[in-house]
Specification:
The complex is a heterodimer of chains A (463) and B (146). Chain A is an all-alpha fold. In chain A, helix 3 packs parallel to helix 18, helix 5 packs parallel to helix 16 and helix 5 runs antiparallel to helix 18. Chain A is globular, with a radius of gyration of 23 Å. Chain B is α+β, with helices and mostly antiparallel strands and 146 residues long. Chain B has a single domain, classed as Roll (CBS-domain), CATH 3.10.580. Chain B contains eight helices and five strands. In chain B, helix 7 packs across helix 8. The longest helix of chain B has 11 residues. Chain B is globular and about 50 Å long. Classes of the chains: A mainly alpha (463), B alpha+beta (146). At the A-B interface, helix 6, helix 8 and helix 23 of A face helix 5 of B.
């Protein structure tokens, strides 16, 4: 309790100062209050992670009680469409887990023929990135860490470098599609960017970052890799492991795999279907997981409740819902329009400077803060730039990549890092120190962000 | 019928500082799946059960990953069993224990057992000291007797 009090005082102080500061630069009382309350939610997640939902509940209540926003608009800005998309995806992932899909994927890694250290690094990095693209970073990392620990146990080597590689790849891969990270779908729905836009523009850039990351870690961990190669020679590669683990996909796994493949196909063609059916952008994208989840719950009707109650992360989703509503209040009161105008004045409407500023601010910010909180704060500001006829597309990509790549810098930078290190501590009693992560995370984070920066500024494709 | 009428009064217990391996051997010897852990002040501090032992030696992410495939007798489990041999009961025991009072009614005990998935409930007196233990079998027998 003694430790909490200074943090609480700091939270109140910063939020009050931000509120007063906003009044001083000419914002009206409602605008200043919405900024102060949103900053309480941001700082609440930073200082009191376990209590974040309480802060979100209180913040939304104060906004309603002070008439800063009305109930209709609070509901409108809570972005129920994103929450429903995430619910649908979580049910589908629940089915995949239940049917042993991930066990099968992990067994594929464990059974790579003629395994070498380099092959192992390439495999875990590429599969981590692709899996996080297709499902989500948190689900993906649990299975990848499980696979890494199995291999490291078998060869009796230290798992830390390989867990770090898997997490770095997961965070990079999560920028590749709308499903990789909640910020992907958040940016897609608010910007109008489609799944196709992500595949054509974000995915190649994520793959480039991934390849660069692999070469960096091959150099960084060359001693560990040499040791692994040595152990593989002593134990005869993973031939024995291949014999020990045999996971032929059963009928359940095959059926779940087919359902997932159908989901991905429909998501991939969602924009085409939007055009064909004359629907608003991303309508089909938001519908697909719901329709598939509905069929999953009919097929597995005995487990339908379990999918909804256990596999859907209601705690997180409720937090997102109220966070989006609070971020929307910034837009509703016009606070972010004023801020956007001031930023445009300061940067003299220089698009390259704006892109760089958003990319680096979101990279540094998401290394400390939850990236959803950060992106939710940035979105109404970027939307506010529209009034000054700024081309928003590079700014959206900058926000997406900053939010995902920044997570690699510190060990608390993303949920995937926290989950992976939690497993490492429980299973191996290894407590990661801040700097053991930081130097490799910072190098990968900075280099990959520079690649994205150069691409956004110099490639006309991204403008 | 109340808890005090159906409970077993001679409570066999272990101490938090006991060796976990010996405590497990004691469970096998007694042919039971769990025991209350009581400290020197006669206060209930946890439950040591086979379930907690399994949770300690199997991977912690099992619940999150759903179905998973392992090697036969993975090295990690063997290592954890070796570590387990040197652990104390306090490192393994479950700290949140559902308890009942001496005057808790039979149906309420049955409800708690069913909803909390408890196989046995320690019975506490007003001073919060353990005075007995009610097993699921005691409750079923008493219900049918009534």
């Amino acid at each position: 309790m003694k430790n909490l009090l200074p943090k609480f005082i700091l939270l109140v102080l910063i939020s009050t100062l931000l509120g007063w500061g906003s009044r001083a630069i000419g914002l009206n009382p409602h605008q200043a209050l919405s900024i102060a309350i949103f900053s309480v939610s941001i700082l609440g997640t930073l200082f009191f992670w376990d209590f974040r939902l309480s802060f979100a509940f209180l913040g939304a209540s104060v906004l309603l009680a002070t008439r800063t926003i009305d109930l209709d608009n609070l509901i409108k800005f809570s972005s129920l469409e994103i929450i429903l998309f995430l619910v649908g995806m979580m049910v589908i992932i629940g089915l995949l887990k239940d049917a042993g899909f991930f066990a099968w994927v992990v067994s594929l890694i464990l059974r790579i023929p003629n395994l070498t250290a380099k092959k192992f690094v390439f495999s875990i990095a590429i599969i981590s990135a692709l899996l996080s693209c297709a499902v989500d970073e948190v689900t993906s990392i649990i299975f990848m860490v499980a696979a890494v620990l199995e291999i490291c146990d078998y060869f009796e080597i230290e798992p830390v470098p390989y867990v770090i590689i898997s997490v770095l790849a997961t965070n990079i891969g999560s920028a590749g599609t709308v499903m990789g990270n909640p910020i992907g779908i958040l940016i897609a729905t608010k910007s109008g960017l489609t799944f196709e836009d992500f595949i054509v523009k974000a995915f190649p850039l994520a793959i480039l970052c991934l390849l660069v990351m692999i070469f960096l870690v091959l150099f960084w961990y060359k001693r560990s890799l040499r040791k692994l190669d040595q152990r593989m020679k002593e134990l005869g590669s993973n031939e024995l492991l291949i014999r020990l683990i045999s996971v032929p996909p059963d009928i359940q796994t095959k059926a779940a795999l087919s359902i997932f493949a159908i989901t991905l196909v429909f998501i991939a063609f969602s924009h085409r279907l939007d055009i064909l059916l004359k629907l608003e952008n991303n309508t089909i994208l938001l519908i697909v997981p719901l329709v598939v989840a509905a069929f999953v719950m009919i097929w597995k009707h005995n487990k339908a409740r379990e999918f909804i109650e256990k596999d859907v992360e209601w705690w997180t989703l409720l937090f997102f819902l109220l966070l989006f509503a609070q971020a929307g209040t910034l837009k509703y009161t016009g606070a972010t329009d004023v801020l956007a105008k001031k930023i445009i004045d300061i940067t003299r409407n220089n698009p390259q400077f704006l892109t760089g500023a958003i990319l680096w601010l979101s990279t540094v910010g998401s290394s400390i803060l939850d990236n959803v909180v950060l992106v939710a704060a940035f979105i109404p500001i970027i939307q506010g730039f529209q009034a000054s006829s700024v081309n928003l597309q590079p700014l959206w990509w900058a926000l997406l990549f900053g939010g995902c790549l920044g997570g690699n810098i510190t060990l608390v930078g993303s949920t995937a890092n926290i989950v992976a290190l939690g497993i490492l501590e429980k299973e191996k009693n290894i407590r990661m120190t801040f700097f053991r992560w930081f130097w490799v995370g910072l190098t990968v984070g900075m280099v990959t962000t520079c690649i994205v920066w150069l691409a956004l500024i110099f490639l006309p494709f991204y403008r | 019928m109340k808890a005090k009428e159906i409970m077993t009064k001679e409570v066999v217990s272990i101490k938090p500082e006991d060796n976990a391996k010996e405590a497990l051997a004691f469970l096998f010897k007694m042919r039971i799946s769990g025991l209350p852990v009581i400290d020197d002040k006669n206060k209930l501090v946890g439950m040591f059960t086979e379930k907690e032992v399994l949770a300690k030696i199997l991977p912690s992410y099992l619940e999150k990953v759903g179905r998973f495939m392992y090697q036969e007798n993975p090295k990690a489990v063997k290592q954890k069993i070796t570590i387990f041999h040197n652990m104390k009961v306090r490192d393994i025991m479950r700290r949140e224990v559902v308890t009942v009072d001496e005057d808790t009614a039979l149906c309420e005990i049955a409800r708690i057992m069913l909803t909390q998935r408890a196989r046995r409930l320690p019975v506490l007196n007003k001073e919060k000291a353990v005075v007995g233990i009610v097993a699921r079998g005691d409750v079923v027998k008493a219900l049918f007797k009534e």
